[in-house]
Amino acid sequence: MKANRTYAAALSVIAAATLLVACEKRTTTTVAPSTAASNAMSATASAMNKAGDATVDAAITGKVKTKLLADADVKGLAIDVDTKDGVVTLTGSADKAGNVDKAVTIAKGTDGVKSVDNKLTVKP
């Protein structure tokens, strides 16, 4: 009877050791992305950058337009503001040349503006 217990205990220890060894075995598989997946990742990154740029441009447009509207001399309602890659384009009209210059100065002084394309005209 004692031999059976010893045999059973030894068998249990061997089984437990086998299970522990099997648990330690790790398999690592590295899969290289396919060309299609790489292209998709690049296209996604590009689209995200464009969306981010458009958001920044829209924010700049809003800031410039708000400043123009806040200035009593400039008559911001008569000026259209467009932004592309940080370049602000002002189109429309002002009642005198000094207000055209003031509108350009306001736009240039806005955070994020790289340059200003002045297409404003003077209309009395």
Summarize the model shown.
By secondary structure, the protein is of the alpha+beta class. The chain is built from three helices and three strands; from the N terminus they run ααββαβ.
Q: Your description of this structure?
A:
The chain has a domain at 53-124: Histidine-containing Protein, Chain: A, CATH 3.30.1340. It contains 3 helices and 3 strands. With 124 residues, it is an alpha+beta fold. Helix content is 57%, strand content 18%.
Task: Give the helices and strands, then pairings.
Elements: H1 2-24, H2 35-70, E1 79-84, E2 87-94, H3 97-108, E3 115-122
Characteristics:
124 residues; alpha+beta; 3 helices
Which regions are unreliable across 5 or more consecutive residues at pLDDT < 50?
A: none
Q: Hey, roughly how much beta strand do the residues contain? A: 15-25%
Return Rg in Å: 35 Å
Largest sheet: 3 strands, mixed
